[in-house]
User: Which sequence fits this backbone?
């Protein structure tokens, strides 16, 4: 499952990032990297972008970017 | 170390309180410049501590030091090429683990680092504890905890900077173990160490890491400096592919992972976490502020409050500040040569014109001060990213960005903004394509200076539908701006660099009064300095264009003749009165000036006592003139007073006629006439053309110029009546075309300069001036010619156009900008 498919409130472990270069680097630099646990906090009022929590840290990203984050939900 | 200047850099991630540290260290001695070639601000400041002068460069806040964003590139280049004595790594202590990610990258560049654990109060408040000594030991560098907001720890930081900068002793800092990648690094370093040019200038381990990360800039560096670059770069590519195949991990991901692991390990050993995890307060606030329904409502409220406090209340304040500016004007009048009966000395009219132009802008200072203060509050509190979060979906559909919200609010999303701060605040948008699109459309929003013309035209031509017309003009600019920006991003801007949206949602903070006032003051000052100089330059040009070539000699003789007649008539009438002798020759002009002075002085005086003092003063200045000015019960004086009033009015009329003729005749007037054959299709006659041309300096000039062009026939007649009279053929349709042209009017000069600064090139500035002009003319011609052909009333045409714009907005909203991200194959 990818991050963009997750509903607010659901949690999971990041498995893999399936994009590299600019977006891939940006995702890891912002703390979205494999092994980490994340939780989807909410979607924006117009559904996009979404906000996720990683390790007490909050990041928002567009669904179009989240689809490259592969997640194992728990 | 005495009497020597050292250079240090401040580095840190966004939202770590770095600007607070910078302000605390350098105080008011700050200076903004640009890094060469990019539109990133370079903040420099200085301070003196224990006799050592220290120059501080505040590097842009970045999460990492890759080559993907201009901010990261300039930070890196600064450290590599300017070789500061040390870097102070400011970090949000409550976010230790994530912040260490950047610290490691700084250390890899082999620059001495002092770690500043800022916001220690937050750490304490959430029940955490950091073992500072242990952290310093693990990292091998000095660590200074501070609460810079209240200045705590500042001295310690200054002392530490001093000792580290002057110490020659090499220190053993932490070195991250990159595991399976270490052999790859070793090989690269070995091969590079024979390259003496490179090895002398760059830290080789850092170069090796960057090469394995696939960093474009470092690869370019190798190509420039390496003796056998092609082969070397090819080998690197092979090594990267080799690593990926062997360990099933992308090299740059492996590197990032290892850094995070090391950070996690250190954070674990130094950090005491609170027992029982509480939901952060910020998240609780966000459940309201970012709520599906409440969020947008709150945002509208915030924007409304922003307008209300700055534009409405700020405007009220200008009532109190305006008298000071008016004094400046009368002072100028007092200092320049007195006017003659019909001849105003050029130097006088020029000086007054200049002061008027500058005053028009200075008058906005209260508005800007409040506006900038409120924006600083929004920025410091952390609300900005929430605004971007709420608006991104809508704006990104039109090629803009969530972070375009603030610039658009400033530019005037409804009615009454200013494009200058709007364009200036585009700086924060990370995505170049969206940033340029935002910069280009902001001048089309309804800035404060466009409003007088709207109000004027609506009052004359849409008097019956005022509310509708006002609503139309307030919202039409949004409906034009969105499709235009979409079209721009699909055409001229389509190849511009984009950046991922991924954005931190930082915790909320309570802004400090000092921080907010300081920032507001700094921005107002920047505005005044940058804009006033430009306005002065332009005012000179426009003055010349309106003044020359002037009135021809025969016409001048005609006016002189009329003047002589008027004065002769007056002197005739007053003949035989005791005042007659006092009114001859130069004395007549002296009386005119006296009369004027008295009238002006009376305007600024309130209360009976002050009035009496004023009267006494003027009586002292010239008792005879005073008698004429204020005849009281004296019959003869009363008659002279009446006759003189007539003369005074005749002079005013003459001056006005001359001014009109001068403008008619002027270069700008000729230009207006020359353009008329073309602009006729848009319904603009030459007078309107002149008003529009003069608006280029500053849009409020449009109404002022119209005021001068439609001469006043009766005292006290408002411009509305005069214009309606003067332009009998002008219909609401004309007015509509004119208003729409004003919406799409090219940026004023001050804005053009801001566009040049923010877009980083003259080319974009010219584009931002030309495309609205073409578009505006097109729209005006469309509305006017089609409206005339279809025999639509102005009101009908207004509705038709609104529908058209709405349809275009919805249509372009559905066009998709293609996602450029490519999914990696396994």
Assistant:
């Amino acid at each position: 499952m990818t991050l963009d498919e997750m509903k607010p409130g659901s949690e999971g472990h990041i498995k893999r990032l399936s994009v590299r270069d600019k977006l891939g680097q940006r995702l890891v630099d912002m703390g979205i990297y494999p092994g980490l646990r994340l939780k989807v906090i909410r979607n924006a009022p117009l559904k996009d972008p979404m906000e996720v929590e990683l390790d007490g840290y909050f990041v928002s990203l567009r669904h179009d970017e989240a689809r490259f984050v592969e997640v194992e939900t728990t | 170390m005495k009497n020597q200047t050292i250079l240090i850099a401040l580095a840190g991630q966004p939202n770590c309180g770095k600007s607070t540290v910078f302000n605390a260290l350098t105080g008011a001695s700050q200076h903004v410049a640009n890094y060469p070639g990019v539109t990133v601000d370079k903040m420099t400041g200085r301070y003196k501590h224990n006799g050592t002068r220290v120059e501080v460069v505040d590097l842009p806040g970045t999460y990492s030091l890759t080559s993907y964003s201009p901010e990261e590139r300039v930070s890196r280049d600064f450290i590599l090429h300017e070789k500061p004595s040390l870097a102070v790594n400011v970090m949000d202590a409550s976010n230790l683990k994530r912040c260490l990610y950047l610290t490691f990258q700084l250390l890899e560049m082999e620059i001495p680092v002092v770690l500043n654990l800022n916001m220690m109060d937050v750490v304490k408040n959430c029940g955490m504890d950091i073992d500072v000594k242990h952290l310093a030991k693990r990292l091998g560098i000095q660590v200074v905890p501070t609460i810079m907001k209240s200045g705590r720890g500042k001295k310690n930081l200054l002392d530490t900077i001093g000792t580290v900068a002057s110490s020659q002793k090499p220190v053993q800092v932490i070195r991250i173990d990159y595991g399976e990648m270490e052999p790859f690094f070793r090989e690269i370093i070995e091969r590079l160490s024979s390259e003496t040019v490179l090895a002398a200038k760059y830290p080789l381990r850092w170069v090796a890491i960057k090469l394995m990360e696939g960093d474009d800039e470092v690869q370019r560096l190798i190509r420039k400096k390496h003796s056998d670059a092609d082969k070397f770069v090819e080998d690197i590519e092979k090594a990267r592919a080799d690593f990926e195949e062997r360990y099933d991990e992308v090299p740059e991901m492996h590197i990032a992972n290892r850094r995070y692991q090391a950070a996690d390990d250190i954070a674990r050993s130094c950090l005491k976490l609170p027992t029982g995890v509480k939901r952060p307060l910020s998240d609780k606030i966000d459940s309201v502020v970012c709520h599906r329904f409440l969020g947008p409502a709150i945002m509208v409220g915030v924007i409304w409050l922003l307008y209300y406090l700055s534009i409405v209340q700020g405007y009220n304040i200008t009532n109190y500040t305006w008298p000071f500016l008016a004094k400046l004007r009368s002072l100028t009048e007092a200092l320049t040569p007195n006017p003659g009966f019909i001849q105003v000395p050029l130097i006088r009219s020029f000086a007054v014109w200049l002061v008027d132009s500058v005053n028009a802008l200075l008058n906005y200072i209260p508005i800007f001060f409040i506006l900038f203060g409120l924006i600083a509050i929004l920025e410091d509190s952390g609300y900005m990213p929430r605004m971007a979060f709420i608006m991104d979906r809508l704006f990104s559909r039109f090629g803009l960005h969530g972070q375009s919200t603030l610039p658009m609010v400033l530019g005037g999303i409804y009615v009454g903004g200013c494009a200058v701060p709007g364009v200036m605040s585009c700086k924060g948008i990370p995505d170049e394509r969206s940033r340029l699109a935002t910069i280009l459309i902001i001048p089309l929003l309804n800035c404060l200076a466009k409003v007088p013309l709207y109000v004027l035209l609506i009052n004359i031509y849409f008097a019956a539908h005022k509310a509708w017309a006002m609503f139309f003009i307030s919202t039409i600019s949004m409906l034009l701006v969105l499709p235009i920006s979409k079209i721009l991003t699909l055409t001229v801007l389509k190849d511009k660099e984009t950046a991922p949206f991924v954005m931190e949602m930082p915790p909320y903070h309570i802004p400090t009064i000092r921080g907010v006032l300081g920032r507001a003051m700094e921005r107002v000052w920047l505005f005044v300095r940058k804009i006033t100089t430009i306005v002065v330059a332009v005012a000179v040009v426009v003055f010349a264009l309106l003044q020359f070539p002037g009135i021809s000699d025969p016409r001048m003789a005609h006016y002189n003749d009329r003047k002589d007649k008027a004065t002769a008539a007056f002197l005739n009438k007053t003949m035989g009165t005791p005042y007659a002798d006092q009114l001859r020759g130069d004395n007549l002009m002296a009386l005119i000036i006296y009369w004027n002075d008295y009238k002006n002085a009376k305007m600024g005086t309130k209360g009976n006592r002050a009035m009496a003092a004023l009267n006494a003063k003027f009586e002292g200045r010239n008792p005879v003139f005073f008698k004429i000015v204020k005849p009281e019960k004296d019959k003869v004086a009363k008659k002279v007073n009446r006759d003189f009033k007539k003369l005074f009015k005749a002079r005013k009329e003459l001056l006005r006629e001359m001014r009109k003729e001068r403008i008619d005749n002027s270069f700008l007037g000729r230009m207006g006439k020359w353009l008329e054959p073309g602009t006729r299709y848009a319904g603009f006659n030459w007078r309107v053309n002149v008003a529009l041309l003069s608006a280029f300096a500053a849009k409020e000039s449009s109404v002022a110029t119209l005021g001068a062009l439609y001469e006043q026939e009766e005292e006290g007649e408002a411009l509305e009546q005069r214009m309606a009279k003067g332009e009998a053929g002008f219909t609401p349709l004309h007015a509509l075309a004119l208003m729409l042209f004003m919406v799409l009017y090219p940026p004023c000069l001050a804005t053009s300069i801001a566009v040049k600064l923010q877009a980083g090139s003259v080319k974009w500035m010219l584009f931002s001036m030309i495309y609205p002009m073409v578009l505006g003319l097109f729209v005006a011609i469309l509305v006017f010619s089609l409206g005339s052909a279809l025999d639509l009333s102005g009101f009908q045409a207004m509705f038709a156009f609104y529908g058209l714009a709405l349809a275009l907005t919805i249509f372009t909203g559905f066009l998709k900008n293609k996602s450029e991200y490519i999914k990696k194959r396994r």
User: Anything to note?
Assistant: Residues 90 and 817 of chain B are 38 Å apart (CA to CA). Chain B touches chain A through 47 residues (CB under 8 Å). The longest helix of chain B spans residues 294-335.
